[in-house]
Specification:
Chain lengths: 309, 269, 383
């Protein structure tokens, strides 16, 4: 028979525990983290510091640069390039909204309506990735070419008249206008919207739709009150994954736009690789980083999904 | 109004398929124009059907060299980022340690940073150190920005893994190394594979960071970029189309195989 | 009963405890599980029973104390070096391995090459010979449970630990598996330590039950002993239902204590009272609902002498089939529960009827009145 003697008093000091408690693998996490974090520190964090220091240096390529705390670089950069900053934010915002509007139905379709076609559609969404995005972006030059079928159709429908009046296009052209750049940005980052949307939609129990219907919600109300709120995590991460790279992009503006559609990415690229004005370029990219971090933090706070990280 | 009702009922399907068409249109154009025989240096307007480019895909100076360089970099970057990222993911999910929050932020930041910012700051570092720009600087940069994505993919998988499975292995006489090899790794494998695939795709297709840190080395995306200025050879479309087809075929085959395997299992039961 | 002069395969916990920061999951605890017994740790969630089990398995390090298996001190041994195997809650079957490989896992890790015969025999024992090449997710819950048992048993452990092994099964299957596990235990003769929150499960299967509450063992004994003679209000309420009456010690009469409750007197054998009994002191008098007889007030004269009695009015009755459950409103206890077998039903026993409750003093038990009278009541429902 088993026996329980009365619980003894806590161990007396004369009878110390005969060994300290073991700690298995106390250092293991640090060894696992070390190489990767070192990599990120040296090649991600440290460069940021270098860049910060470059942005307050003065000098020239020939004579070398010195840290002079020349903060005026920031002011000069901002006052000279604010239109490009503004344009970047506007284009990226427009592309993000378009991605959401276009991507949501497709994500919804894959999650709830595709049935046995689900896998095929998923493949078709992802497969274009394997063709270099530069090649695909160049294809838009053909699609939107002057006098091509797309422009022709838009012209016949008098859509171009409206967009020209709004300043989105110029005359009979779509290429080399803001519309072309936004169209390219939307196209390029659409999968980054669709995939997180799909992930969070897929987690929604289909019976919730039936339950909402059972409780007198019409399909539109069901979407507004049940589906959309539940897909918020996907909406938030999708918009971030779209907006951030779009705001820093310069490929679309370069390939599909003109000098009037230059974004801040173009400026940074030119300053760094052609003009070789490192302090200005560093200041610009610092401003861009700060602006985006600020907006992202604000957005995450407002949408109440801080556990996103 | 039967038509309006039909439209209402199938609105999602129609809108979704239109978006899909928007996504696929450029690929169709790329494919069609891989059979073009353009008149000038640029392959933007349809002239005449030809299979010239398909018969001689390496017929443009530097194209296949850049392609092979891109593939090499992608393979090494994938290996590096997957190894480092998997280790970090395991540490984050499986252990409690100090500075967790800081580590998480350091992982998250590269994903929340516009590429051009990372590209520019990394170039600043390399310039300051006087590093020779080329293969190694590109590889370093690629491992850096792929790392976070691998961590995220592997973390998701390891997090959904029941810790009791590892305890069960230990309970059944598997030591730490055996537990990791026989249980943890096989179960985490799909997450690691997903992370590796993502890293490969990101590295292979990266342009912005590479453009800043490549010096005079030319990867495939940089070759395409350069040709957009100088003239776009049809061979670019050939390679783009081929890669698209290979990817689709690869996925379809693996799906058919896994389907058949499932069916065999079901019938043998 | 013996304490330390144990057999070669006993599990012996000495002063074992577990604290997480400032929270104490298990208070210092001494416990011996004799070889070959079916031992149950019973308690509500968070009572420390699973932590105790995991300390035996080596999955949790005790903050103090030692674990002995037979004569061997295994406190410092990692789980993979202990001759102990566990059936985990929700089974923890390896999803990437088929049933055969799941069962063979432990043998292979110990370097045994020819596992086929053993695995097949073990699968026969749990009646899963046909399923050897299926993956765990292709099996039903009951089948998975049997795989988990087979995977552990094949290693012929000194002790088999079962952590809520039947929690994920539906009621009917659970009953079936209770008998099945009991059969297997009898067949292989290995010590089973079973953690559960289900008192019925513990009582059906175990030879010995330890009832745990808030990191302590409240009482330990055979299921009958625990049920008939609870020592604390927690045990009285957690195992089945008890009616507890606050009473005052009046006099002692030989081996019996006479108590005052309300206006009447109740008799309690002193041997069945776990509380100090000084005259004038408070005692909780307990009686199980099925021990009580109900007689209509008009027939009160027919009740034999020497029984404890209380008067009241039927507040509610519900017909269960084999029995009828009454709730009686009485001055000494507001909600007295009585279960009456449906042998000869007295039609007058309907809500509103005045009745006399009476029972044999030998069924009465006495508890320390300093305890919470409701301990252990709600906790099971919260699970």
């Amino acid at each position: 028979m088993a026996t329980l003697t009365e619980a003894p008093p806590p161990l007396s000091p004369t009878a110390p525990a005969h060994k300290p408690p073991r700690r298995r693998g106390r250092w293991t996490p640090y060894w696992l983290l070390l190489p990767g974090l070192l990599w990120l520190c040296v090649f991600f964090a440290l460069p940021m510091i270098y860049q910060a220091s470059t942005s307050v240096q003065t000098g020239s390529l020939e004579e070398g640069y010195k840290v002079t705390w020349h903060l005026a670089t920031y002011w000069d950069a901002l006052s000279e390039y604010w239109p490009q900053f503004l344009r970047s934010v506007l284009y990226a915002a427009a592309a993000t909204i378009l991605c959401l509007v276009l991507g949501y139905p497709l994500a919804y379709l894959i999650a709830f309506r595709a049935g046995r076609w689900r896998n095929l559609i998923m493949i078709l969404v992802i497969a274009p990735f394997f063709t270099s995005f530069l090649i695909r972006t160049l294809a838009w030059k053909t699609i939107l070419a002057d006098g091509g079928p797309v422009v022709g159709a838009l012209n016949t429908l008098h859509v171009l008249d409206v967009t020209s009046w709004l300043g989105w296009t110029a005359g009979d052209r779509v290429l080399a206008t803001p519309l072309a750049v936004v169209c390219g940005l939307t196209y390029n980052f659409l999968p980054f919207m669709i995939l997180p949307l799909y992930t969070s939609l897929e987690r929604i129990d289909g019976r919730l739709h039936e339950a909402a219907g059972d409780l007198y919600a019409r399909p539109v109300t069901t979407f507004r009150k049940v589906t959309f709120p539940l897909s918020m995590p996907g909406v938030v991460s999708g918009t971030l994954l779209t907006f951030i790279p779009a705001a820093g992009d310069y490929v679309n503006a370069e390939l599909l736009g003109s000098t009037d559609t230059r974004m801040i990415g173009n400026v940074i690229q030119t300053q760094f690789l052609r003009v070789l004005d490192y302090p200005t370029a560093a200041a610009l990219s610092f401003i861009l980083m700060a602006a985006i971090l600020f907006m992202v933090t604000l957005y995450i706070r407002r949408s109440g999904t801080e556990d996103l990280v | 109004m039967p038509f309006v009702n039909w439209l209402k009922r199938h609105f999602v399907v129609i809108a979704g398929l239109l978006t899909l068409a928007y996504l696929l249109l450029p690929n169709i154009v790329v494919t069609v124009f891989s059979f073009n025989k353009p008149k000038g240096r640029f392959n933007y307007q349809w002239q005449q059907f030809s299979t010239d480019a398909w018969q001689d895909p390496c017929g443009v100076a530097g194209l296949c060299g850049s392609l092979s360089l891109s593939l090499q970099i992608a393979v090494w970057a994938t290996l590096g980022a997957t190894a480092l990222g998997t280790m970090i993911a395991f540490a984050l999910v499986r252990y409690r340690f100090r500075a967790r929050g800081a580590v998480n932020s350091l992982i998250f930041l590269p994903m929340a940073m516009p590429e051009v910012v990372m590209a520019a700051s990394l170039l600043t570092l390399f310039l300051n150190l006087g590093a020779q720009l080329g293969f190694w600087t590109i590889l370093i940069a690629h491992i850096m920005f792929c790392l976070s994505f691998v961590v995220t993919a592997v973390k998701a998988r390891v997090m959904s893994m029941d810790p009791r499975l590892e305890q069960a292995a230990q309970d059944l006489y598997a030591g730490p190394a055996q537990t990791f090899l026989r249980v943890t790794l096989p179960i985490a494998a799909p997450g690691i594979a997903a992370g590796a695939l993502l890293a490969f795709a990101l590295s292979f297709d990266d342009f912005i960071i590479t453009n800043f840190n490549a010096g005079s080395t030319v990867t495939f995306p940089m070759f395409v970029w350069g040709s957009a200025q100088r003239g776009t050879p049809v061979q670019i479309n050939v390679i783009g189309t081929a890669m698209f087809l290979v990817a689709v075929l690869f996925v379809l085959t693996s799906m058919v195989i896994s389907n058949r395997r499932n069916r065999q299992k079901a019938s043998s039961v | 009963m013996k304490t330390t002069n144990s057999g070669s395969g006993d599990v012996r916990l000495t002063g074992i405890s577990k604290t997480y920061g400032s929270f104490t999951a298990v208070q210092p605890l001494d416990l011996t599980v004799p070889q070959g017994s079916f031992f149950a740790l019973l308690g509500a969630s968070g009572c420390g029973k699973t932590t105790t089990l995991r300390m035996i398995a080596g999955l949790e390090e005790p903050s103090s104390g030692t674990v002995h298996l037979g004569d061997q001190d295994v406190t410092a041994l990692p789980p993979y070096k202990r001759p102990v195997n566990t059936v985990f809650q929700s089974y923890a079957l390896f999803p990437h391995l088929d049933i055969f490989e799941n069962v063979a896992f432990g043998l292979r890790r110990r370097g045994i090459k020819s596992v086929k015969k053993q695995v097949e025999e073990m699968l026969e024992l749990v009646q899963l010979g046909e399923q050897a090449r299926k993956k765990p997710h292709q099996l039903s819950g009951g089948q998975q449970q049997r795989v988990a048992v087979a995977r552990a048993l094949i290693n012929k452990p000194g002790v088999l630990l079962l952590d809520e092994p039947l929690g994920a099964l539906d009621l009917k299957l659970r009953r079936q598996m209770q008998l099945e596990l009991k059969r297997i235990q009898t067949e292989v003769g290995i010590t089973f330590v079973h953690v559960t929150h289900d008192q019925e499960e513990a009582m059906t299967m175990a030879d010995t039950v330890a009832v745990m509450n808030a990191g302590r063992v409240e009482q330990l004994g055979s299921p009958t002993d625990l049920y008939e003679n609870p020592k604390t209000t927690f045990v009285a309420n957690f195992l089945g239902t008890s009616n507890l009456i606050e009473a005052e010690v009046d006099t002692k009469n030989g081996d019996d204590i006479v108590l005052k409750a309300g206006g009447g007197k109740l008799v309690l054998p002193e041997s069945r009272c776990s509380a100090p009994t000084t005259t004038g002191g408070k005692v909780l008098v307990g009686i199980r609902p099925e021990k009580i007889s109900l007689t209509h007030a008009d027939d009160a004269g027919e009740i034999p002498e020497g029984r404890n009695r209380i008067t009241g009015r039927i507040a509610n009755s519900s017909f269960i089939g084999v029995s009828t459950q009454y709730v009686i409103d009485s001055t000494v206890c507001p909600e007295f529960e009585v279960y009456a077998q449906n042998v000869d039903r007295d039609a007058r026993l309907a809500p509103g009827a005045e009745v006399v409750l009476h029972w044999s003093p030998a069924h009465t038990f006495g508890l320390d009145a300093a305890q919470d009278i409701d301990a252990g009541i709600q906790e099971e429902a919260a699970l």
